[in-house]
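Predict the 3D structure for this chain.
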Amino acid sequence: MVFAIKEINENPAVLPNITLGFKIYDCCYSEIRALEGTFWLLSQWQSKDAKSSCGIRSLPSAILGALPSKSSLPMARILGIFRYPQISYGSGNPSLSDKTQFPSFFRTVPNDKFQPIAVAQLTKYFGWKWIGILASENEVGEIGSQALKREIISRGSCIAFLETLPIHNFKWKIPHLIDIIKRSSSKVIVLYSTIEPLIPLLDEVTLEGITGKVWIGTTTWTISSDFSQQELLKTLNGSLGIALQRGEIPGFRDFLYSIHPFKFPDGIFFTEFWETAFGCQWPKVNFTESGSGSKVKVCTGMEKVDEIDNSLFDTYIFRYTYSSYIATHSLGHALHNMLSCHSKELPSANVSCSNINDILPWQVIHYLKRVHFKTTTGHDVYFNENGDIPASYDILNWQLFPNGTSRYYNVGKFDSVGYPEGDIKINENTIWWNGETPEVPQSVCSENCVPGYRKATRQGEPICCFDCIVCSKGEIANQTGEKSCLKCPKELKPNDQRVKCIQKLSEVLSYEDSLGAALAAVNCVFTGITANILCVFVRNKETPIVKANNRGLSYILLFSLMLCFLCALIFIGQPTGLTCLLRQAAFGLVFSVAISCILAKTVIVIIAFRATQPGSNLRKWLGIRLPSSVVFGCTLIQILICSGWLLLSPPFPESDMESGEGTITLQCNDGSVTAFWSMLGYMGLLATISLVVAFLARNLPDNFNDARYITFSMLVFASVWLSFIPAYLSTKGRYPVAVEVFAILASSAGMLICIFFPKCYIILLRPHLNSRSQGMGSAKLINKKY
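Done. Predicted structure below.
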């Protein structure tokens, strides 16, 4: 302040022909002393300062101070009543911005409401998600820590713990706090506290050997010189903190180094400063020894100020020093503007712009609100409507050198000019972390989920604590730390790592794969067998066993079974519009013909043996066209079902993208599910009737009786198709088609084997049984029985 007043007085552009003076009162960080000094300064209104070179007036135009908020608050309440201007160079309490309570208060340090924002942005910048907070048990810590907690949570991070540091009688709580710090997985701890309780806490942290933590400080202690122990400095090595903006003051260092008690004999602070800085005492009356009996070093005046450690002397830090500097210049510019009538709107028409003796305090407030100037280093200074300057903080890194010396290194800046929520810039290359590692320490409750996994919050824990769950089928997570997985489009599928969607492979029951080739081969084999059996029957058409039960029906049945085997081949291969139309209709028609033939053969067996009873006119009544009528009538109903199906809702080819796992199934859509199951149901009805009729005729003589074989064939048919229904409904992809092909193959083979293999056995291997005498023997047995 003294240096700034000296600059103003020597500057001809500011307050020309006017010399500023000052009075200093040390309030010693005490609220009571601050009020006492305030009243002392204001009570000098009528007195003349005998030592003043001008002797005009001794009432200050404004009061600069105090440094701590606890001292400025009671001062501001008193000065606000009288509208007396007050400019603090260190009080950041947010409540001081309330102009209804403190209308005459200004400050050249940022409002403390920006400190939580700056710290929260700092933690977000480095990606720290799991943060501990230790707050002093006073207004600074309690209000600030709650604001910090809100800011951290609003940016997506979480609070690992929030504990208070008692200002008094703190020893009982230190073990509890040490235990919390040890057990917590948080690597970042914010010390939102005044300096008093921090020293014993950090001493204990050092004794316990707690390492690997990043301590973050606020403006209340970041640049404190109270930490002197070497071991404690090692604990704080690599810590970060926010501090008031540092500004260069040209010529100030030389001014400080020129200070000497001999040069300022009336300076009440110089002798005390000299004794404290150099550890000596000025000679006094009867001054020989200290209380301990040892001689005390005597101050000689030859000591050099530039040899004082920078950590103890403010020439290196320039924080509150700079705030005091711009506070003094702000008042100087306000007085200059007022006396020069630079404001377009005068506070009072009765005030003479050039008469310094008529200045009233509230007029100074008017011009302070409109102060706007640049310092010699280009710093823009002005006050907003709340009497605050724009918030700006330096980001400091505490660095300990191998030789034991330490320093605060400026590694970034927080600025609110042009940014409502502030903006932070960091030079990471200049940061030393604890242990001198270049890598940024990690502080998370749970490690980020790698691609392919999503976060699953643990019940009852903060959102930063989670488990990593692999993405579900059909979903991916292509970035680290995804909260949810993305579903792939229908035509795509996730890769094995579930980090990207890839094209699905087309799947179809084709002749190229083993399953399709095997089914096709077996069908072809049975088609050949059926054709050979038909040839055998044609070549032996005049034999009794072929003629029995209507050889024409046998030919039709064999031909329809051959078509059944062949129609199964339509199901294999890539579906087209034509094959989709033919598949189910052809299968339903040829099977209906086959089962109708079996039903007709069963009816003929019953008629043949019932007609041999005496007086029976059954054969004459039914006629010889009965088999043809049965086959035609039963097949006609199936023709009508299939025709209506193909006309009203025909099957068509489609690509099924959902049923197959990771594949696109090329298949035929049946069109009408009702028609499909109606076709199968009608076949089942024919088979059931044939089974019942054949079962009733099972006890007739064996030689020319097909009823027993027909019964077995229908049992096989029923078993196959009853098993087909659940198998068909429960499979996906190409397997439903494979199940249907297998059902066609198995049921056709069952009918072929059960009905025709015994006959072929007799024709080819037991030809002596294929004679009329065998048939006549059977007729006699029938006559005897009935």
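The first helix runs from residue 2 to 10.
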